[in-house]
Amino acid sequence: MPNKHPSAFEPKILIINIVVSLLGVIIGLELISRLGITTNTSIIGALIAILVARIPLTFLRDFSNLHKQNLMQTAISSATFTAGNALFLPIAVPWLLNRVDLIWPMFMGATLACCVSMTLVYRLFDSRVFPAKNPWPPGIATAETLIAAAKKGKRALLLGYGAVAGVVSQYFFKIPADIAGIAWIGNVWALTMFGVGLVVRGYSTQLIGVDINTYYLPHGMMIGAGLVALIQIILLISKKEKKKEREEGRKKEERLALTRSEKEFGSGLSKSLIVYTLIAMLLAVFGGLYSDMSLPMFILWILFAAFAAMISQLIVGLSAMHAGWFPAFAVALIFLVIGILIGFPAPALGLLVGFSAAAGPAFADMGYDLKTGWILRGRGKDKSFELEGRKQQYFAELTGLVVAVAIVALFARYYLLQDLVPPVARVYALTIERGASPKIAMYLLLWAIPGGVIQAVGGPNRQLGILFSTGLLIMNPLAGVTCLVAIGIRLLVKHVYKEEGEKTLYILAAGLIAGSALTSFVTSTLGLGGGRKIL
Fold first, then answer.
1. Are strands 474-475 and 533-534 parallel, antiparallel or unpaired?
2. Where are the alpha helices (DSSP H) in 209-294?
3. Residue 31: which H helix or E strand, with range?
């Protein structure tokens, strides 16, 4: 283990990170506008980093170092999800609402929200609620890809087999191999609920003759699960000292392994909520919302927008940590529907959903990046080295953010003028135009109850309610079947081959995720394939 982690501000690293971030921005804009999603940004970043490290130039010789590749991968990942999910998607909403005057206020609010979100991920990663030891499956796949490329050997061979299987399954048979890989890595209980949710959503019409989405069942379930998850988080960080002492023996090793204390976790959340409130205030003022609402409604919008941004990223983070898939678009839609029911006017709703959508994705994609770095740095064995490396990754994330902000500011209008807008932005705009319905409110309240109960039963470690609701929000029944079959295979392998079999599955899983992600990226960019239908 090196004594000093490479700095994200070393001239060579900074220059390369800026250059590859430009590529990341292009990838992000192309995918979000033409397909509607940004595929696994961590994996794409790793593959580009590996290619750059193998270019036979003296200037790039140092990039055989895995930690430098990790910083490069992190910058690309940041630029990709920031450009697509966090910046371009939010500004497309006011464009579709014919409120061009709101684009720059929205851009400012989205930029600041993304910056705060990245900072919060940095502060909360490897805490009791978001421990580094939890799956964050794409992060594992990214780390395994980088390690295998560097060390070769049996691990590289297994990873290669998995990657080939991922490509073949995804491209020729349209089987989402990445979800099979995730099912071999993540929490069995959580992913079983995720798979069941996918199957229920996908086959509800055939099984019971009803499309559950028309009754807002997935949205209500997520609201209930999300509120209970929030209560669970609050209880975790506000436990009395006596309770901590009782658990000390059982949790001793786990507590020593964590790099963020419960005090830091609580402080990070409270400070972020304050900053989100200030950003929401700026967004409301520059967006001219005071002219459309009374003072009480204006204040309510500011508080609700801050709350929506905070809760969005926590829900996204919990889903991403366990399942590797996250319902960022759908969570933003939930807060939009609630905003409609409250009675906010259309301009305020457009800014609300954009603000919420901008805050969520970083908690997933950056979480994967930090998981990758955590593995490469020795899984937290050297605490000071881990913290220094994580800080440098944070700086690399900000590098990608700055590049994304500059490029999107310059070139977004060319996409908008060609009507190349994210499909989900059209969903948001159409929802705003439809307006409120008492029936929707009834459905949301009704389905929030079972969502909350499932989350409470599963507890904060398994996140059953969040994962079940995530599955319900995604229209991909084949992914659900794949997930459940993969879990069955995992249990069988574990029973027959014990720990050695699980280790083999672990590396094969990383290959499946990498191969599937690469295939999705190539086919999406070339227009040869389709993406997952969300919502």
1. antiparallel
2. 217-237, 241-257, 262-286
3. helix 11-34
State whether residue 533 is helix, strand or coil: strand
Q: Are 366 and 320 in contact (CB under 8 A)?
A: no
CA of 165: how far to CAs of 180, 206, 448, 479, in Å? 11, 30, 39, 16
**Reduced to 3 states, what is the DSSP secondary structure of residue 234?**
helix
**Residues 38, 521: Cα–Cα separation, whole Å:** 8
Amino acid type, 452: G
- pLDDT tens, the chain, 535 aa long: 557 899 999 999 999 999 999 988 987 887 788 656 555 678 778 877 887 888 888 888 888 899 999 999 999 999 989 999 999 999 999 999 999 999 999 999 999 999 999 999 999 999 988 999 988 988 998 898 888 888 776 777 888 899 899 999 988 888 888 889 888 987 889 889 999 999 999 999 998 888 998 888 988 898 888 888 878 877 766 654 445 544 553 454 455 478 998 889 899 999 999 999 999 999 999 999 998 899 999 999 999 999 999 999 998 898 888 877 676 777 888 899 899 999 999 999 999 999 999 998 888 899 999 999 999 999 999 999 999 999 999 999 999 999 999 999 999 999 899 888 887 888 789 889 877 778 888 888 899 999 999 999 988 777 899 889 888 988 889 999 999 999 999 999 999 988 888 888 888 888 888 788 778 767 754 454 444 333 3
Query: Exposed (0-12), middle (13-18) or buried (19+): which is 212, by Cβ within 10 Å?
Result: middle
Judge whether 35 and 80 are in contact, CB under 8 Å.
no
Question: Is residue 205 within 8 Å of residue 429, measured between CB atoms?
Answer: no
CA 212, CA 26: separation in Å to the nearest integer?
36
Query: How crowded is residue 489: how many other Cβ atoms within 10 Å of its Cβ?
Result: 14
489, 195 contact by CB (below 8 A): no
Closest CA to 139 of 409, 312, 370: 370
Neighbour tally for 101: CB within 10 Å: 11
Q: Which amino acid appears at position 332 of this protein?
A: A
CB 372 within 8 A of CB 142: yes
Q: How far apart are CA 408 and CA 173, in angstroms?
A: 35
For residue 314, the SS3 value is: helix
Q: Residue 474 belongs to what H/E stretch?
A: strand 474-475
